[in-house]
Each structure stands twice: as C-alpha cells, then as structure tokens.
Amino acid sequence: MSVLPVRKAVIAAAGFGTRFLPQTKAMPKEMLPLVDKPIIQYIVEELAEAGIEDIVIVTGYHKRSIEDHFDYMSTDLRLNLKNGGKEDLLEQTKRISDLANFVYVRQKGPYGNATPLMNVQHLIGDEPFIYTYADDLIVAEPNRFSQMITQYEKTKSSVLPCIRVEKDVDFKRYGIVAGDEMEDGVLRMTTIVEKPGKEQAPSNLASIGGYLLTPDIFEYLKKASHEIPEGQEFQVQPAMRQMITDGKQLLAVEVKNAKYYDTGNKLEYVKTVVDFALKHDDIKDNFMEYLRSLSV
C-alpha cells in the first residue's frame, strides 16, 4: 500500500496574544521578532525544509500583517533595497513568499484548538497533514517536522512530537502521553492526559509543537463538535483518545537532538530572543560582551 506524501500543513494563528498586550493590540503575537525574523517565519521555514508545499494559516480579523509578510514585497521596498545596493536583503526578502503556497482562512466556531482544523477540512481532503502552532519552536537536527514525516512514512500513523519534561510546572502546561515502547523514543500511545500535574502524569513525555495527523481525525472531530460539554473548549485531544480506543495507532515520538522554545509568554519569549541573538554571526560577539557586562 502506497503512503500519501505529507505535503500540507495548518498553522493555528487566530489567538489574541493577550499575554503580550499592549504590544499585540496592533501586532499579531506570531509576528513578534526573534532578532530579524518573526516567530511564524521560523515555523514556515521548518515546514518548507521538511518538504511541505501548501501551508494553510488560520487567522483572525487582526492578523492581516501575517498575510502581508508572506506576500510579494512592495515595489517601493524592492526599489529601495535595489537602489541601496542591498542585494542580499533583497534576495532574503524575495525568498519569503516562495517558501510555500499560502492559503489564509478566518477562524470561526467555538473556542479551542480543534476549531482551526474543522475550518480547513475542505482544503486538506483525504491527505495526511501537519497541524502546528506559531509560538512553539523546536530547534532540532533533522528538524522536528522531518522527523515526524520519517516516522509517518514507516508506519502510516499519526505522530505527536514530544520532549522529556522534569519541572513540576511543565506537567501542568502540556499534554502528557503514555504508551507501549515500539523502539527507542517511539511509543504506541495508550492515552494522552491534558495538563495532569506531576503526581497524576502517566509519564514524563510531553506532547509539544503540534501533530502530524491522518485525515480520519476529521470524522472524530465532527462527532465531538456535537458533544462539547457546556463551558468547555473544543479540543483535539479527546478525539485522539477516542481514536486510540477504536484501535487506531497514534505514535508519540521523542524529537531527537532537540531544544524546545515556548514563546507564548513574556519570560520564555525574552529567553528565546537571547538564545537566537547569540546565534547571529553579525551581533553575537558584541551581544555576549554586553551580557557579561550586566553580570559585573
């Protein structure tokens, strides 16, 4: 049986970014810069590197700047860079719009991480796809999406990228998976528990950075959409648990050679900016010198 290639991805980008107000009153949180690139560009570059061709970004009314960022640059900017002899910047900026084919969908429906998926079902069809968020960064080699796709190609199963966690707070921030080990770092999932706390956690393997999903997730989400308890969010995880109950194979895969960055809160965002600045050849030495001066 041939395996359909993973060539589509969905990025959820409709949130308000309230933890970064007032900055996010006019600027989407996904466009917050990590030195000289917005967060969402790093996600898109990862996807493109992994072979993704079509990227659907689910946005809200206040996210037009995301569309503008991945559009072709204006004539004025192009001429400004060209006349200023800034050919490297011109090429870098031109490449952004060529990273993938972009489609934008406005989110509508109940609050929760399953709603963006229901909004794009007609665009995904019967293909496997990646579903990810614009504030979860994982630096890995190969990149996390490539590792997920490699596992999918071997098993034809949905894949959840995971990292090991130790801090008490992390068990209250992420979904924790449990399962039967198939090979080193790969579990056939038996459950996923959302934010259980360390005492009730079934393992120390946390699901982060999105999912690679097979299209049968949609039938489970459709059914779940009619059964949302009053006052609760429309979440992906219950649908996954039902898939496991029905005998479908979902895999938790520990991302190898990984460092995880959560840019969804102010402190972790600032830490991420520092780490990324220290990787920039043009500023890292002077920046390190400045950081050392602060500790004197």
Can you walk me through this structure?
It is globular, with a radius of gyration of 20 Å. By secondary structure, it is α/β, with parallel strands linked by helices. Strands 5-4-1-6-12 form a 5-stranded mixed sheet, with helices on both faces. A 5-stranded mixed β-barrel has the order 8-11-9-10-13. The termini are far apart. Strand 9 and strand 10 form a beta hairpin. The relative contact order is 0.15. It contains 10 helices and 14 strands.
Which structural category do the helix and sheet elements fall into?
Answer: alpha/beta
Can you give the mean pLDDT? 90
The low-confidence parts are: none
| Distance between the first and last residues' Cα | 64 Å
Overall number of strands:
14
Taken in chain order, the helices and strands follow as EEEHEHHHEHEEHEEEEEHHEEHH
If you compute it from the alpha carbons, what radius of gyration comes out, rounded to the nearest whole angstrom? 20 Å
Enumerate the strands of the largest sheet in spatial order, edge to edge or round the barrel: 5-4-1-6-12
Mass-distribution shape: globular
* Beta-strand proportion: 15-25%
Alpha plus pi helix count = 10
Main β sheet profile: 5 strands, mixed
Strand-helix topology:
Elements lengths: L7 E6 L19 E2 L2 E2 H11 L4 E6 L4 H6 L5 H9 L3 H10 L4 E6 L8 H10 L4 E5 L2 E4 L4 H12 L2 E7 L10 E9 L2 E9 L10 E3 L3 E3 L3 H9 L11 H9 L4 E5 L4 E4 L3 H12 L6 H11 L2
